[in-house]
Design a protein that fits this description.
Layout (H helix, E strand, L loop, with lengths): L2 H8 L11 E5 L2 E4 L4 E4 L2 H4 L8 H11 L12 H14 L3 E5 L2 H19 L6 E5 L8 H6 L16 E4 L4 H10 L2 E6 L2 E2 L5 E2 L2 H14 L2 E5 L23 E4 L10 E5 L20 H13 L2 H18 L5 E7 L2 E6 L3 H10 L2 E2 L1 E3 L2 E4 L7 H16 L2
Helix pairs in contact: 3-9, 4-9, 10-12
The chain binds pyridoxal-5'-phosphate.
The site of pyridoxal-5'-phosphate has 15 residues, from helix 5.
């Protein structure tokens, strides 16, 4: 049996995979079982921030692997402590809870909001506002937070206490805050799965102001936008706001599973002994890799991300077969004349791995993709988009 047949036989059918078996990679290039080369413009959905098998990341991970690969959270280990310190120093946040995925980081944020509101306003203040077209994860609670009905249909009842409101509508926001007993607002600065849709900066400022005024927690889901992806370390840093909670995952681990909820001033003391936990949370190998990733995302790298972004937008905007380009930094959504799925398959055929998000082609290349490889991929995408 081929790997593809074994997979189809034994793995639950949740993924509609392309008929390609990737066997190895280096940086932004990967090779399949037949030796065909591809340029990776998806980086594992924004996970492999420095590409595949990056040497510095590998060294950090393997060094820790040889020391201790896991300890229970009953004992201290260095990598998680160091990573938490670096995350706080780079953001001004005060404490970190480590989880293993984006959804779990958001679960932690939601628990923090519920407990903070219960202690400060009363347990009836438990509603979390989220934005329509958002994506916050696949657990039953983060699905409830996700403002896209089609994810909900088959899994009722979801966790109660979530209300989604239209992004950009300040009046609707004010009405929701006046109508519901709100504990927190959870949002993405750029809606990734929703089609790489940036949220209006004025609306982000309105959410921040109202949250501060009403003592509602401002919680930014930076699972996809975080860790340098948008040209700032975290996307909220583009807007000069101070969130109470920042959640992140994807790119942070560079390819190993880690999620984190960063807690600001107001909520730093909310979680006490036994309030939350995770067996794997803060795993030393994942944290050692993440520390390496985070320490490499300095001002030079962020400037490089912005330059590459300008190049991509400049090359794609207004090109034949391309209706519009959206996004921020190296998080790019492309509205194509041809159906995005068709463009994606043609790119795959020509050796470029892309993603889609809703009706758009989506690019999330590694932050350090070499300019020559980026150009090669962009020219192929342009070519595919313009062909009849
Ligand atoms: C991917 C994603 C999640 C879920 O992350 P998992 O690691 O798959 O649980 C949550 N929020 C956003 C914005 C995401 O892009």
């Amino acid at each position: 049996m081929s790997i593809i047949d074994i997979d189809k036989t034994y793995i639950a059918g949740t993924y509609n995979r392309f008929p390609v078996e990737i066997v190895r990679g280096k940086g932004s290039e990967v090779w399949d079982a037949n030796g065909k080369r591809y340029i990776d413009m998806g980086s594992g959905i924004g996970v492999t921030a420095f590409g595949i098998a990056d040497e510095g990341w590998q060294a950090a991970v393997t060094a820790q692997l040889a020391q201790v690969q896991h300890m229970s959270n009953l004992y201290y280990t260095a990598p998680g402590a160091r990573l938490a310190k670096l995350l706080c120093e780079r953001t001004g946040m005060k404490k970190v809870f480590f989880a293993n995925s984006g959804a779990e980081a958001n679960e932690c944020a939601i628990k923090v909001a519920r407990k903070y509101a219960a202690e400060h306003k009363g347990a009836e203040y438990h509603v979390i506002l989220t934005l329509e077209n958002s994506f916050h994860g696949r657990t039953l609670t983060t699905l409830a937070a996700t403002g896209q009905e089609h994810y909900h249909e088959l899994f009722q009842p979801l966790t109660p206490g979530f209300v989604s409101i239209p992004a950009g509508d300040v009046d609707a926001l004010k009405t929701a805050v006046a109508t519901y007993k709100v504990a927190g607002i959870l949002f993405e600065c750029v809606q990734g799965e929703g089609g790489v849709v940036p949220v209006d900066p004025a609306y982000i400022h309105a959410m921040a102001a109202l949250a501060a005024q009403e003592d509602i927690l401002l919680m930014v889901d930076e699972v996809q936008t975080g860790n340098g992806r948008t040209g700032q370390l975290y996307a909220y840093q583009h807007y000069g706001i101070t969130p109470d909670v920042v959640t992140t995952a994807k790119g942070l681990g560079g390819g190993l599973p880690i999620g984190a909820a960063l807690l600001g001033d107001k909520v730093q003391g909310v979680l006490g002994f036994g309030d939350h936990g995770s067996t794997y949370g803060g795993n030393p190998v994942c944290c050692a890799g993440a520390y390496h990733v985070l320490s490499r995302i300095d001002q030079d790298l962020l400037a490089e991300v912005r330059r590459k972004s300008d190049y991509i937008f400049g090359r794609l905007q207004g090109a034949p077969g391309i209706k519009s380009v959206s996004g921020l930094g190296l998080m790019v959504g492309i509205e194509t004349v041809k159906p995005a799925g068709e463009v994606l398959r043609a790119c795959l055929e020509r050796g470029v791995l892309c993603l889609t998000a809703k009706h758009k082609l989506r690019l999330l290349p590694a932050l350090n993709i070499p300019p020559s490889i980026l150009e090669e991929a962009v020219e192929i995408i342009l070519d595919v988009c313009k062909e009849n």
